[in-house]
Amino acid sequence: MEGGARVTVKAVVIIAGDNNVRGSLQFIQDPSGITHVKGKITGLSPGLHGFHIHALGDTTNGCNSTGATF
């Protein structure tokens, strides 16, 4: 990038899990470096849930090929 231009970076995750768990998430990092996460997940059982993020989307060798966890 010439002149140190700052850009917005985006990524999308499509979720297709067990028991009809489906959804999508959008990760949007604005030029200041702040990352916003928004989306919708359906099919979860009632109660609290959490998720973690891997550095890579490569699942060819399970979690061994997905890189660092955030």
Automatic annotation (TrEMBL):
For the keyword Protease, the answer is no
Query: Which keywords annotate this record?
Result: Antioxidant, Copper, Zinc
Question: What InterPro entries is this protein classified in?
Answer: SOD-like_Cu/Zn_dom_sf, SOD_Cu/Zn_/chaperone, SOD_Cu/Zn_BS, SOD_Cu_Zn_dom
Catalytic activity reported: 2 superoxide + 2 H(+) = H2O2 + O2
Do you know which Pfam families this protein is assigned to? Sod_Cu (PF00080)
Gene Ontology MF term list: copper ion binding; superoxide dismutase activity
EC number(s) stated in the UniProt entry for this protein: 1.15.1.1
Enzyme's top EC category: oxidoreductase
Q: PROSITE patterns given for it? A: SOD_CU_ZN_1
Which cofactor does the UniProt annotation name? Cu cation; Zn(2+)
Gene3D superfamilies the UniProt entry points to: Superoxide dismutase, copper/zinc binding domain
Q: Where are the transmembrane segments?
A: none
Family the UniProt entry places it in: Belongs to the Cu-Zn superoxide dismutase family.
| Cross-referenced PANTHER family | SUPEROXIDE DISMUTASE CU-ZN -RELATED
What name does this protein carry? superoxide dismutase
Instruction: Give the originating organism.
Output: Rubroshorea leprosula
Q: What are the top taxonomic ranks of the organism? A: Eukaryota, Viridiplantae, Streptophyta, Embryophyta, Tracheophyta
